[in-house]
Amino acid sequence: MFDGLWHGIFGGLFGPGIAQWMNRFKYWVIFLTGMAGTYIGLYVAGIYTKGLKIATQIMLKNIIAPDLILVSVGIGLLMLFVAFVGVLGTSKKSSEDDKNDS
Fold first, then answer.
1. Could you tell me how far CA 102 lies from the centroid of its own chain?
2. For 20-42, how does the pLDDT look when each residue is reduced to its tens digit (9 = 90+)?
3. Any transmembrane segments, and where (predicted)?
4. Domain span holding position 70
């Protein structure tokens, strides 16, 4: 019951603003930011759990591991998809508003 309420509040308040903000960037920048953010997030999580020295050793050893590369590519593609769909939704909504104003 409350899912529709929360969806309306957060989608209506934050959705158009985030979509317009992400529209400023090129798609390859969003993709690379998602990939780099994955590596940075895992490194920070390793520092928090294991300490700086061990986290650095683990990250350097696994930086080109295929599973880590695929996970980071997947998260980058997910961010790219969200940005693309957000841009499509914003342009469609603004064109409908223009038609209603005429």
1. 36
2. 776 777 888 889 999 999 999 99
3. 27-48, 68-89
4. 31-85
